[in-house]
């Protein structure tokens, strides 16, 4: 399973645009991407909690670190954006 990450492709898209040569994603494709992000996010949380247990960090400290985790914030932002786009597309149908 590949992890969602930025690639070194020459065609760059901003969050608000899609390259002209790339068709709009189907609802099934968006759902698949959302599921992959959810799995990736959960893996980060699980690994962080496991490491925190080994280091005997308190649950409070661990949760605080997770709230500040930059990759989790990035994932949450992308997921939120995708969900808004799906909602907007459904509203326009």
Characterize the quaternary organization of these chains.
single chain
Number of helical regions: 3
| Total domains | 1
**What value does the Rg take, in angstroms?**
16 Å
Shape: elongated
Q: Give the low-pLDDT segments.
A: 5-14
User: Which structural category fits the helices and strands?
Assistant: mainly alpha
Number of strands: 0
- The average pLDDT is 82
**SSE topology string:** HHH
Report strand %.
under 5%
Classify the helix fraction into a percent range: 55-70%
The separation of the N and C termini measures 33 Å
Biggest β-sheet, characterized?
Answer: none
Explain the overall architecture.
The chain has about 90 residues and is an all-alpha fold. It contains three helices and no strands. It has one domain. Helix 1 (about 25-55) packs antiparallel against helix 2 (about 60-65). It is elongated and about 50 Å long.
In short:
65% of the residues lie in helices and 0% in strands.
Which features does this protein show?
93 residues; mainly alpha; 3 helices
Task: Spell out the blueprint of helices and strands.
Elements: H1 27-54, H2 59-67, H3 70-92
Helix pairs in contact: 1-2, 1-3
């Amino acid at each position: 399973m590949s992890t969602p990450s930025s690639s070194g492709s020459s065609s760059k898209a901003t969050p608000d645009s899609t390259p002209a040569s790339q068709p709009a994603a189907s609802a099934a494709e968006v759902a698949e991407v959302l599921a992959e992000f959810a799995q990736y996010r959960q893996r980060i949380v699980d690994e962080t909690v496991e490491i925190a247990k080994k280091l005997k960090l308190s649950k409070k400290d661990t949760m605080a670190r997770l709230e500040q985790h930059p990759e989790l914030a990035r994932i949450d932002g992308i997921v939120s954006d995708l969900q808004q786009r799906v909602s907007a597309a459904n509203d326009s149908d």
